[in-house]
Amino acid sequence: MSTKIDNYLVCMIFYNSKTMTPKVRNVRSKYVPEGIKILYEDRDIIVIDKSSGLLSVKARYEKEKTAHQLLINYVRKGNPKAKTNLFVVHRLDRETSGVMVFTKSYELREKFAAQWKNVEKKYLAVVQGNLAEKSGIIESYLAEKDDYMMSSVKTPEEGKLARTRYRVIKESKDYSLLEIDLLTGKKNQIRVHLSERGYPILGDLKYNENPQGRLALHALSIKFKHPFNKEEMVFETKIPDYFSNCFEIQDKDGDLPRKTKPFKGPKRAPKKEKKTGIKTKTQQGKC
Question: Please, is 224 exposed, middle or buried when counting C-beta atoms within 10 Å of its C-beta (0-12, 13-18, 19+)?
């Protein structure tokens, strides 16, 4: 998307907010790892923009190449003997990109936990189809099955309450761009809620057989009170270029036009390229 569209969406989403986004400071660019952009850092917290494909925290199959471990190396300035540590405030799925917060002490992480119900988290998602209801709240009880898949169940005894607020921002013939407020933070919540209602997120191989590029889910912004000084803070991330493959929008005045140029579908698959371990823009896929 163009910078004008990025600015429009951010202004639209935060129109009623008087909170100013803090400027980036104290970033030691020499040690910033690939796949991570530092949005803000002070003596208490670090806020980042995580790339798609990077694990948030270690798993049984990967312990080193995670956002958490890479940031620990960053705050230790490359010194493995340093004792500085980081604590995860919340997680993103591996294929989900966007804003994440870490604290530099366990006590501050606990303060975050105490205010978490009041933290505002906004996402963008591109889904298949056009929603009949252009805004609303999806609510269900979610439970994890033996295969680690999440699904809705009938009673609170079987699962935990999950609530997802959504609003359609743009539509093309086959796809919709949604702004999503995460009202609760259950595992795979957004992906499950949209898939079960027949509007799966593009690229979601777990809850829909859809091979079209990366998962089109992005943690756009987060708003919270600083755990130490209680200052209200908002952090916004750039909308991934991948999303613009679904919505070609042009407007001289910077406003969203009433009609969107219809999307004609994915281009033919490119010729196979030699594996280098790093995904190129072509390999990341298009809608």
Answer: buried
Contact assessment for residue 54 and residue 33, using Cβ atoms and an 8 Å cutoff: no
CA dist., res. 250 & res. 132, Å (int)? 26
Residue bearing the bigger pLDDT, 116 or 24: 116
- What is the distance, to the nearest Å, from the Cα of residue 5 to the centroid of all Cα atoms in its chain? 18
Instruction: Assess contact for 177 and 123: CB atoms under 8 A.
Output: no
Catalytic residue among 6, 42, 93, 147: 93
Question: CB-based contacts of 26: which residues, under 8 Å, 6+ apart?
Answer: 41, 42
Q: Which two tokens stand for residue 166?
A: 């959504």
Q: Is 93 a catalytic residue?
A: yes
The answer to whether 122 and 234 are in contact (CB under 8 A) is no
- Residues 9, 78: Cα–Cα separation, whole Å: 37
Q: pLDDT, tens digit, for every residue of 78-94?
A: 666 777 889 999 999 99
pLDDT in tens, 57-78: 987 766 668 999 999 988 888 6
pTM, whole model, 2 decimals?
0.77
Burial label, 166 (beta-carbon count in 10 A; 0-12, 13-18, 19+): buried
Give me the phi and psi of 252, to 5 degrees please: -65, -35
- Non-local (6+) Cβ contacts of 69 within 8 A are 58, 63
Which are the contacts of 263, defined by CB distance < 8 A and separation ≥ 6? 172, 173, 174, 175, 246, 247, 248, 287
CA separation for the pair 185, 183 (Å, rounded) = 7
